[in-house]
Q: What sequence folds into this?
């Protein structure tokens, strides 16, 4: 049924195209600096037509953010197989892939971008954090986390965010090193909590029971003992 | 020169009074829920008079936030005497005092309060983080921090923020435990970084050289070694 002339897109198809174009521009430069004119031009349509699909830049920004949030949450999903340290390391690699791909947009969002304070934006950010939290608990095999475990997991998630933001600001440390370091940071924060609380100690010993001698957790303990001696 | 009738306040004095009244209300309930009428009533003046001193609630909120930020930054100042772990622990106690006193306002601000996204608010939050960063470097005796030290210090500051926020949400863990835990977290994150980088290792060994056998750092290493064995 192609006629040789440019096919007219349906409403949903056009919206999806605009979201994709906007997300790519918002990922390359701070969203503050991207105009609707630019988005229209990159999509090959007129400025008024963009407004036909999205009432304003904020709604297009939020739609792009929704797609990015779904993408990121999807990268947290990891098969429940093999040692925990190796699983977390694979997730960290995909997390830094995402941060690398969306650098300027990620920084602007987390440091206070155009839509910060909007209810939609905050809800999207919280949903991604919650997705990370749920994944980690599921890999630990915990359904009813004690308060100290919730604290360790949620505060580590915020540590991973700030580590990524600091990395983006100049990229002065190789990301491969930071990916491993965040796995070690998780183990270290859990170990500190376990050092204060017997329930956390039992949880951590259970989680580490299947760690291989060459895994990242075992690697960390060896390094810490060497440093302390 | 008192006349027995209520003395009329000068402009600056009245502004300072309103800031104090507003800060107290913003500290007890989320600033979203505090009205100008309430502030006027608590200050014993009329609503229009409040607007005479502050053009709107945002400007009064920002002034209250400025005072709270200065207060918090002041609590980071600690004499450069004695072991580092004990110094950091004293700062953590004062930090939790502040968080405790300003709970609802602190939560609302850090989770996305009425003025989040405002340039003034973001600048005030950044200034407090920077004050914490500068204090820590100064206690470590470092003037030109390598990238990995900057990462450890700044990401630990964000960990301290998220730990305080999670604590405020239900207060399910005793704050005294979290104050010590954050000191241990700092040591643990520094140790992870030192395990990856020789320069960080030398820095950490220097910092720990003066730690007493009963200090929080030594305590942590003992607990970690016990846990690993």
A:
């Amino acid at each position: 049924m192609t006629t040789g002339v440019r096919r007219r897109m349906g409403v949903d198809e056009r919206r999806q195209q605009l979201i994709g174009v906007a997300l790519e521009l918002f990922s390359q430069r701070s969203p503050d600096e991207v105009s609707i004119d630019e988005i229209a031009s990159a999509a090959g349509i007129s400025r008024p037509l963009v407004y036909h699909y999205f009432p304003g830049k904020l709604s297009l920004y939020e739609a792009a953010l929704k797609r990015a949030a779904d993408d990121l949450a999807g990268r947290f999903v990891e098969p429940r197989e093999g040692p925990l340290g190796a699983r977390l390391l694979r997730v960290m690699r995909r997390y830094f892939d995402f941060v690398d791909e969306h650098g300027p947009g990620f920084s602007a969002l987390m440091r206070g971008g155009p839509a910060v304070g909007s209810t939609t934006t905050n809800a999207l950010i919280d949903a991604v954090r919650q997705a990370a939290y749920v994944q980690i608990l599921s890999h630990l095999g915990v359904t009813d986390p004690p308060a100290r475990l919730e604290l360790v997991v949620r505060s580590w998630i915020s540590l991973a965010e700030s580590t990524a933001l600091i990395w983006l600001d100049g990229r002065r440390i190789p990301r491969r090193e930071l990916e491993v370091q965040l796995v070690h940071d998780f183990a270290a924060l859990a170990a500190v909590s376990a050092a204060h609380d017997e329930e956390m100690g039992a949880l951590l010993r259970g989680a580490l029971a299947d760690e291989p001698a060459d895994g990242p957790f075992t690697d960390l303990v060896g390094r810490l003992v060497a440093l302390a001696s």
Notes: Residues 19 and 63 of chain A are 6 Å apart (CA to CA). The two ends of chain A are 75 Å apart (CA to CA). The domain at 68-228 of chain A is CATH 1.10.357.10 (Tetracycline Repressor; domain 2). Chain A is about 75% helix and 0% strand.
